[in-house]
Design the sequence.
């Protein structure tokens, strides 16, 4: 049997780092994204396609990580509907589609692990200048996580989420440097988070020998920011 992991958002910083780390630990990794270098080019909003991917892997599917996500600008009062719909579609509907695809296959086999990428914004609201849809979509991801955790517990399916603060990487670099510096200064650790720190948390949650009794958790990775 080949222990297989699916990573959505595989062409992004976090998705790519997850693919590399899981491969190094002996997993067969299938990266999914709308652009290369993903192994499968697919839109996470295409629920039938994700279901097809999961069904094609079958009982070997042991880990599914919903890491696809996008940011958008637009503070309250000037936030546009098109950006709202785009963020909700990718961040929330895409995570739902991934959860549903993985859950259906894992329930029919010997279980598995689903890890969703939420956000601090889903717990406290978005940062200044961030579209309201971002925090709303990530709060929805957290609720989805708990729902699938409750449904999957007796099927040996564990569903958890990581909730990072701002991470150094291409998504953060799209923001003004002055804003990033302010965010870093306001963090108890005095810095932004690193992709590697989130990767290690996902590896932990994806390992049944280390995290079997953790289910429905939203793990904050934010340096203690509240």
Sequence:
């Amino acid at each position: 049997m080949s222990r297989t992991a699916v990573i959505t958002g595989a062409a992004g910083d976090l998705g790519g780092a997850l693919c590399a780390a899981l491969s190094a630990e002996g997993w067969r990794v299938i990266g999914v994204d709308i652009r290369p270098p993903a192994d499968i080019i697919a839109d996470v909003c295409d629920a039938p396609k994700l279901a097809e991917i999961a069904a094609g892997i079958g009982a070997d599917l042991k880990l599914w990580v919903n890491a696809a996500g996008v940011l958008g600008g637009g503070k309250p009062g000037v936030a546009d509907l098109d950006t709202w719909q785009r963020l909700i579609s990718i961040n929330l509907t895409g995570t739902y589609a991934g959860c549903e695809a993985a859950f259906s296959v894992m329930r029919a086999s010997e279980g598995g692990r689903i890890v969703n990428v939420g956000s601090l914004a889903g717990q406290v609201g978005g940062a200044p200048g961030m579209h309201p849809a971002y925090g709303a979509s990530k709060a929805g991801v957290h609720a989805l996580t708990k729902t699938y955790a409750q449904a999957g517990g007796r099927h040996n399916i564990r569903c958890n989420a990581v909730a990072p603060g701002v991470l150094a990487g291409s998504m953060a670099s799209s923001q003004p440097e002055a804003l990033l510096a302010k965010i870093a200064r306001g963090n108890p650790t005095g810095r932004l988070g690193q992709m590697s720190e989130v990767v290690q948390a996902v590896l932990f949650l994806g390992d049944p020998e280390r995290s079997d009794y953790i289910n429905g958790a939203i793990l904050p990775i934010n340096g203690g920011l509240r």
Strands lie at 4-8, 28-33, 40-41, 61-66, 112-117, 157-164, 218-221. Residues 119 and 163 are 4 Å apart (CA to CA). Residues 81-108 form the longest helix (28 residues).
